[in-house]
# Entry
Amino acid sequence: MGRMGALCNSFVSSFQTPIFTRIKTRHKQPLVPRRNLNLKAMAMDPSDSETYHQNVLVMRHGDRLDNFDPTWEKTADRPWDPPLIQTGLSRAFQTGRAFRTLLPFPIHRVFVSPFLRCVQTASEVVAALCAVDDDPNAKSSRDVVSIDPSKVKASIEYGLCEMLNTLAISLDVAPKDGIFRFDIPKLEALLPNGTLDRTVEPVYKEMPQWGETMMDTQSRHEQMIKALADKYPSENLLLVTHWEGVAVSVSSFKEDTGVSKVAYCGYSELRRPVSWENQTFTAGNFEHSSAPVLLDCIVACVFVLKNLMLHEISGNNLRVQWIYKYENVLLSQPHLQENISPSKPFRFHKEKHRKAKATAMDSSETKTCQQNVLVMRHGDRLDNFDPTWEKTADRPWDPPLIQAGLSRAFKTGRAFQTLLPFPIHRVFVSPFLRCVQTASEVVAALCAVDDHPDAKSSSDVVSIDPSKLKVSIEYGLCEMLNTLAIRRDVAPKDGIFHFDVPKLEALLPSGTLDPTVEPVYKEVPQWGETDPTSRYEQTIKALADTYPTENLLLVTHGEGVSVSVSSFLEDITVIEVDYCAYSELRRPVSWRNASVTAGNFELDRDSETDRKENNLGFFLISAH
# Structure
């Protein structure tokens, strides 16, 4: 049931590499195809005496309903088998579109767990892969007019199902008799017409037994990957499964690597050499692709940065998924997909972060402390989930958050409060509505008094202590003002972006606004700016220098987070940023006799594990 907190602690006892999935972010540049064309795999001709690469993607399902509506399971006939929410359907479709556009090889065959959320995910992915003359504005399979079912074939496979024990499915929602029943014909009917392959013989003829151990699950998923790959050695496969399946696809084929978390639609990419000769094939060992595919919604990578992700597509948006190891970049990403359970404390190793801990400094002392600056992207914006919204909106360039975005922002704030080894003293926010709403939720969580453990957003917070931090709107943190970020048909006709600042400030929790702050940018940047990099970099440094004794949170846009990484980490480029993903900068600050001397910013990599273990947003990077 997605009880990921307890699950990952048990599943990976010694974890050194987390995996995450892509995030929805509007990617402004054209998609870049993978450069390692020598790794390209295609259907192989058994008559040839050659070696090719077979590719196997192992992907988690999309956003499940019970993690967003806790009351759903109370009245559900099958509370252990939740469907996807609309966001999950959209995410799956955009991921499929990313596969189609960015992968350097075709996907020939899809195998899917019989759980409803997985079948729905597979259906969206397959529709995107098979779409004919796909509408670039399509948000889900409902927007696909026609498909070519010859492109991909799909089959249900019991062996890819959820881990069948109380670590994954709580006893109170599991079937009383321990038997998980599935109406296979009904599930198969959800797949796009003509894509079902009825001739396939499943590896598992029936469901695994309820009560299987963790080791049973690991061996099952590993067996499934190998068995399906061996059965179709001349085809590239996509296996749609659950987070444990993706975790096993990493830990079983990459030495000394564990997976802490898997984002919705997060995926790993395996490949192996396959030699054919005289109708006989010989396959090598699986390895993880080291050349991440830069999809517009999902990306994979292996690196030790706090907010990395693998890509995921959504129109012009990209999401990232990534696996993290302390050496290089590899493969997938997550967003704040699972509900963070306040009843389960976050695992945070403060001893690792003592050197980074910063508090407000006493000006009478002579010492060096660390100043911390978090640079965070806003939550889930409405126009990426409802394509019709902007057609009737008064300000189509300034969409609000959806409810899931408000919830994600609030939970991120709660995570900051619980996990960070330092307090946040001051928040600066872009004037765009989605950013102000994000900041409002984060601040409410940070300032909450006796916060209810079941609170989902600021509306559930009874009271706050506004003395904990102060908030201000900063124009310098606004969106990139050009047609790469805002389409000309939705931008203001006169090129002037008007903001009702008092109205925006009223959205912040009562008492947290600091009206005395002098902004770095006194007005909105000019429409048509060519490169916002210098603006973001200048704003980050200027705000930090203005408040050198305080830890800051800057709520901005994807480009702002990107700059916070690439400008302070040599030879690194950020490909995509998840909703509510953030980077963490820190620098030494020496304070003596009212005089401040600050060192250079560096990206804090030490707390990457903790963030991933707790479902926080990530960003995707690429080493030059």
Remarks:
- DSSP finds 15 helices and 22 strands in the chain.
- The first strand starts at residue 19 and ends at 20.
